[in-house]
Amino acid sequence: MSLGDDQSYGDTARGGADDGYGGTGQTRTRLPDGDPYGGARRGGRSSTRSLVTVVGVVVLLIAAIAFANRGGDDSASADGTGSPGAGGNKPKTSTTAASGTKSVETKTNGIPSGFKHDAQGAQSAAANYSVALGSTDMFVTARRHDIVNTVYAPAVAAARQTDLDNAYSNESFLTNIGLGKDGTAPSGQTFVSRIIPVGTKVTASAPDSATVEVWYTSLFGLSGDGSTNPVSESWYTTTYELKWVDADWKITDFQQKDGPVPVGRDQKASTADDMTKAVEEYGGFTYAR
Known about the structure:
Layout: H1 46-55, E1 82-83, E2 90-91, E3 106-108, E4 111-113, H2 119-133, H3 141-151, H4 154-168, H5 171-176, E5 190-206, E6 209-223, E7 232-245, E8 248-258, H6 272-281
Antiparallel strand pairs: 1-2, 3-4, 5-6, 6-7, 7-8
């Protein structure tokens, strides 16, 4: 799921062969013998899409692996990293290369904070806030309130919290994603909701404001025997409007779009035990650049 107002949950068909960028818009994922986790395949979520679009949740999106045929972006990055000349003003590889900047060491409500007052600090804040807003903690009322009050600017936090509370307390929404009415996973299953930023880019910058794009992949679903919502992967880009408030970067607004989505490999999906073990043993990261 993603992070704010304009959340949409969608499923894209699995299984059709794809011959490349001019293909059908589908990729293939090999499933283990039988359906993943020994359960039925996931049903459609058109009702969830409608619900969450109305209430404005942006958290980790539920989707199967999709193929996106997207064109290149010829615009220059706002932090001056565009490559001028006959080749056009395209961002250099260095726009997502490591900068050597150390990760912040302070945290607020368990979320990295105290980012530098520059473009790199804004990128690091956006990446870390994406991770928090796409986590399983968003399904726990007290933790959700902590996250919202930490990552959003005070001027918008109250309204955002109301929208998110309405969405996450909706029993129909929780049922559609396989959770109980209290937001917990069924016995014997593990709920997975995780965002992994792949890269960031500053598209506009001023002394006390910045626009940052975060490209990320997400994992969402239930691992465990009998799961009808096995963990799936999806790709999105969220554009954050950030302001320098109370000596840190805070979210004031955002927009989200699908992709860019890489072509899926013809790989065998992991078993329930392997997926659960991976989720429990592999922790997340603090992001800085």
